[in-house]
């Protein structure tokens, strides 16, 4: 199956549409999708089930592994929206 015929979840489709409405570049969109995929992998469950505490645990996990992240990703409600709605 090639990317043009590959099925995507309704939730991911919604996130892609939301990012397009915000006029995010395709590179930024790809980065957000990658980040959320990694977050869902950390959770071992769909990202739309994440809680604020899950986000906090993930942030600590990243810091423990030497990965610096912009705090703005985690200090407001919009970051949670981005993270939980991509996957």
Short description:
The chain has 87 residues and is mostly helical.
Which overall shape is indicated by the principal axes computed on the Cα atoms? globular
Classification by helices and strands: mainly alpha
> Major β-sheet, in short?
none
Please bin the fraction of helical residues.
55-70%
Low-confidence stretches: 75-79
Strand content: under 5%
In quaternary terms, these chains amount to: single chain
Distance between the termini: 19 Å
What is the domain tally?
1
Total of DSSP H or I helical runs spanning 4+ residues: 4
As a whole number of angstroms, the C-alpha radius of gyration is: 13 Å
Mean pLDDT comes to 76
**What is the chain-wise order of helices and strands?**
HHHH
Tell how many strands the DSSP assignment holds: 0
Walk me through the topology.
Elements: H1 10-21, H2 26-43, H3 52-64, H4 77-86
Overview of this protein structure:
The protein has 87 residues and is an all-alpha fold. It has one domain. It has helices at 10-21, 26-43, 52-64, 77-86. Helix 2 crosses helix 4. The radius of gyration is 13 Å and the shape is globular. The two termini are 19 Å apart. 13% of the residues are buried. Mean pLDDT is 76; it is low at 75-79.
